[in-house]
Amino acid sequence: MDIIANYGTTLVLVAALFGFLMAWGIGANDVANAMGTSVGTKSLTIRQAIIIAMIFEFAGAYLAGGEVTATIRNGIIDSNAFADTPDLLVLGMIASLLAAGAWLILASYFGWPVSTTHSIIGAIVGFAVVSIGPEAVQWNKFGGIVGSWVITPAISGVIAYFMFISVQKLIFNTDDPLNNAKRYVPFYMFLTALVICLVTIKKGLTHVGLHLSDGEGILLSIAISIAVAFAGWIYIRGQKYNPQDDSKMHFANVEKVFGILMVITACAMAFAHGSNDVANAIGPLSAVASIVASGGEISSQAAIAWWILPLGGIGIVIGLATMGEKVMATVGTGITHLTPSRGFAAQLATAATVVIASGTGLPISTTQTLVGAVMGVGLARGIAALNLGVLRNIVVSWIITLPAGAILAIAIFYVLQACFS
User: Fold this and answer.
1) Is the pLDDT of residue 123 over 80?
2) How far apart are CA 140 and CA 138, in angstroms?
3) Averaged over 180-184, what is the pLDDT?
4) What's the rounded Cα separation, in Å, for the pair 286 and 310?
5) What's the chain's Rg over C-alpha atoms?
6) At residue 162, does pLDDT exceed 90?
7) Are 89 and 82 in contact (CB under 8 A)?
8) What are 336's strand-pairing partners?
9) How far apart are CA 331 and CA 30, in angstroms?
10) Cα separation values, 387 from 78, 273, 335, Å
11) I need a surface site. Which of 83, 87, 175, 200 has the fewest CB within 10 A?
C-alpha cells in the first residue's frame, strides 16, 4: 500500500507508457488480421490499407472497446486475492503490459503472426502465480478463454467455408458469372453492412450517449444495410463490361466486383479488431489507474478513465503504420492463394466471429480466428491449396507465445518490485 501512496502518479505514467507500447505491438502484429487479406488479394495497396485501418481501428477501439476490457481486467485473475496487497496487482499489471508489448514487437520484427491475447493473458497469469500463488488465477475462466481459442477458429472456418462455397455455386460455377455477380453481390453487401451496423449500434453508440433498444438497433441496422445493398446494386449495374470477353475475363471482372466488397469487409474487420483487441492493452492499464485513483481499493466495477481508450486506439494506429507490413505479408499471401472472392469470405467470417465474441465480453485471438477462416477458404478447394509448412510455423509461434509472455512478465515483475520497494 505504501508503494501506491508514495508513487501513485509515477505508477500511472509508467503504466500508460507500457500500455501505449502494448497497443503499438497490437497494431504492428494484429494489423494482418484486419488488412492482410485485402493487401494479399491486391484489393488495397499497403498505403490504402493503413489509411483505412487507421480510421476503423481507432473507431472500433474508441466506440466499442469497453465490453471486452472488463473481462481482461477482472476475469482472468481473482482480484479479491490482491485485496490486502493492491501494490502487487499494480506492479503485476505494469509488468504484464511491458512483457506482452515487448514480445509482440519482437514477433512483428520477424513477421510472426502471434496472438496478442495469448501474450497478455500469459503475462497476467505468470505474475499472479509468482506473486500470490496459483489460487489467484480463476482457472475456470481461463479454461473457457483457452477453449475459445479452439472454438473460434473452427466457427470462422466453417462460416468462411460455406460463404465461399455459396459464392462458387451462385456465381463462379454458372453459365453467366458476371450477371449472377450483379444479382447476388448486393446480398453479400447486405450481410457485411449488417455485421458492421449491429456491433456499432448495439455497443459503440452507447459510448457516445445514444442508447437504443435491441429492437430499434436491429431495425436501424437492417435499414442501413438495405441502403448499402441498394447503393451497391446501382454501382455494379452501372459498370460496363464487354459481353464478347472470354470466360477468364468474365471471372476477372467478377473478382473486380468482389474487390469492392473487400474494401467493405476490410473496414468491418478493422472495426471488429479494434473493438476486441484494444482490451489487451487498456485492460491492465485501466486496472492500474482505478486502483491508484482509489488509494489502493480494488473495485470490480471501476469506470474506465476517459483518456485510456483514445490512448489504446492511437497506439494501435501508430503500430500498424510503422511495423505492420511483415505480418501482413505472412497472413495475406503465405497460407493459401487468395483472390478477392476468397479473401471476402475469410474476412467476413472473421469479422462476424470477432464481433460475436466482442459482444459477449469474451477475449479471443483475432489471429487464430482469421487463420481459421483462411484455412476454411483453402479447404473449400482441397487441402493441397494450403501451405502446410507456413501453417505449422504459425502454430508453433502460437504455442511459444503463452509461456513467453509469462516468463517475461515474471522477470519484469521482480525488477519492478526491486525498483519500487
Assistant:
1) yes
2) 6
3) 85
4) 12
5) 22
6) yes
7) yes
8) 386
9) 10
10) 41, 25, 5
11) 175
